[in-house]
Amino acid sequence: MTPPSIALVVPVLGTGWPSGQILDLARGLVRAGARVLVLAEEGRLVHELTRLGIPVELAPLPRRPIVDRRKTRDLREPLEKLAQGGPLVVHGHGASAAAPAALLARRARADLALTLYDRADARATPPLGHARLRAVFVHSVPAQEELVNHRGVPRELVHVVPPGLDRERTGNVVARDGWPAVPVLGALGRLEDLGGHETLLRAAKEIAARPFQLLVVGEGPEKGRLLKLARELGLADRTVFAGDLPGRAEVFETIDVFVAPALRDGFGHDLLEAMARGLPVVATAAGAVFEHVEDGKTGLLAPQKDEKALAAQIARLLDAPVEAREIGLRAAASVLDRFPVERLVDDVLGALAAVTA
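The structure corresponding to this sequence follows.
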């Protein structure tokens, strides 16, 4: 059966979530024979997609049915061109993409699909009463239950699917033999309330006697407050808020220890990619992280919002480079075969094939 043409909608193609998943999913869909177009408003990851042959259309996305009619008209031509290859699905990624994807699907008379990554994402999504909603993909059972029990989405439309990694892109495992003079602690993700970056900064203060550099990659509404907190904690000279960077591989190559302090219940693609690349990780023990990070073997875990525990786990890795290397290698071995992007693509296309014309 010929796969549908799919327009992947994500407002910001930044370095962090959900851009890594968009990158891998788009490549996997193309390899499966689907025609793919990525619709976004902005983002520095655009060049990486285009370099891989994934077309991207940058334009303001509609969010209000009446006021934003011009925006839907501006995107009509690329959607109509995409639809010439067969049935069209507009697939929004994340809560902020739900309204634009729904409006574009209505305008293009296309089927609508959404990916909502966790329970917080499901809660933040506007009402999902769209007549052409065909499937909602989530990465966690709590997100599924939120949609079914509290948002009124029919259970048969909600599919729990694991994230997927493109092994060609993420399988370059580089194990560190010891630390440089100043190791880099890295965090990648949107700077928001659930990002956990305040806990990370306070944990860094706890271990300030050790040499390290803290690299925070991403943008978001919390950036100003976090910059101020870093100054107040005396960390301004060793913390770099890098914003969104043009490539993901360079970010992971720069980092020695990957720290994922997020408070979400899903299992983030950024954490998964760090593990696949052989980085030792310290993560907040929240939600699906429990299922995929084995404490002491494939990563180290710390309770939510506990800066002292997070600091202790980071210090443990910095003090034991041999153990850190072994944890990174075990992490890579544990995820590369368990999260193939081909399975994610099969799940998405299989669900869509069952409900689209």
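The chain has two domains: 5-164+340-355, 169-336.
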